[in-house]
Amino acid sequence: MSRSMPLLSTTLAAVLALAPALAGAAATDAASGGGIAWRSIPGGAFRSAVRFEEERPVLPVAPFQLMERPVSNAQFAAFVARRPEWRRDRIPALFSSPGYLGHWESADAPGARLDPDAPVVHVNWYAADAFCREAGGRLPDFLEWEFAAAADATRADARHDRQWRLRQANDGTPHAPDAAADAPANVYGVRGLHGAYWEWTGDATSLLGGGDRRGRDDGDALQYCGASAMAFNDPADYGAVKRFVLLSALTPAATLGNLGFRCARSQP
Amino acid sequence: MNHHFKPLRTALGLALALSLCGPLPVALAALAGPDAPAATMLPGSSLYQVDAGLTDQHGQPLRWSDLHGRPQLVSMFYANCHLMCPLILENAKALQKQLGADGERLGVAVITLDPARDTPQALAAVAADHRTPAAWRYLRPEPDAVRALASVLGVRYRFRDDGSINHTSVLVLLDAEGREVARSEVTGIAPDPAFVQQVRATLAAD
């Protein structure tokens, strides 16, 4: 269980966060505040880079919708105004974490130093989950996220393109393929999936999949070392692998300076 | 072997909150928003801070925070589960029996991970099949609340493409206010004696 291995998680998360994006460095043209633009993702049979337990490598992805952009500072500020229990000074201890919205100028506003349209960061899983539920959606599953992120501007699945794939080694840093403000949307009209910010998934804290081992003395060690090294269909899909390793190391209360989120919703 | 003691986690959480968020985060946490009236009475570390609506096996709607007021044994499962889930139910049943008369003061709540399939009727059928005490609550969360409940209960789960769910099998002991006191991984039908002792102590202190 994530709570029983805080040191390792923290260390790994810290290593992966060594090149945090500068807050406010990204999007300039996103719609400010409330309005959420949803894009339809058709779904279909999908071969994940991750091998989930002993399942077959090709899994079905149901059609769903995904936000065009990650949730912005302005959108999150509007949320905490509507739901003040998610302000950093009121959040219940159950959900609180030291860094939660710590970069904002005040408890209810990001302040002038931050771009209101930039992705909100330093949000933990609980707050991201609450935001998406309030928006009538949910956080996407890792598989859904990976499905949408397999696309580039012209191809629904660009993962066979070695150059495109190599550039994703920079995901989560200011050098990421989608970090530039003018980076094109992918074929679904979704932006920034390979941007300067990581994004929470709904199943982030269930990604290890080795729950049946956790009762054993060797369980934790195996999950982090051997088991996770072996758990990929495609270890050369750097972006997906890096993302999976980061998310699976996080506890729900964790926050990072380059970790935000966007919401999904199932097709009606 | 896998009991996590709440006091340590709470103390750590408080220490971190105090160091970062100014002088009175705990007092402020009590001023939860207008949308969470029940939560305002509960401590900030209460698991009942999760905003979730549920339906019980009789079709009665309730809020997650309505479980406050007595110690609760909580677990997550799904009805169409034939290996671990029966063990969870039998383990909890045996545990409550060991408590004797005190056991009646322990609430038991079993929450489904699969609200799409586990209707109140399906949950009532599980209760009947396993002859669990009538006071047990089998709860179906609103679909969008399952992940949040699982997160605070420390339950990891994943739907597999055959419809089964891999999930953590654990009993979580909450005090009357919803704070986690202890947890016990379920590996068989026999309750962990150390966990039973913690349940006794919690009931005695209540």
UniProtKB/TrEMBL annotation, chain B:
The keyword Signal applies. Residues 1-29 form the signal peptide. CDD domains: SCO. Disulfide bonds join 81-85. Keywords: Copper, Disulfide bond, Metal-binding, Signal. One of its GO terms (molecular function) is metal ion binding. The keyword Metal-binding applies. Belongs to the SCO1/2 family. This is Protein SCO1/2. It comes from Pseudoxanthomonas taiwanensis J19. The lineage of its organism: Bacteria, Pseudomonadati, Pseudomonadota, Gammaproteobacteria, Lysobacterales.
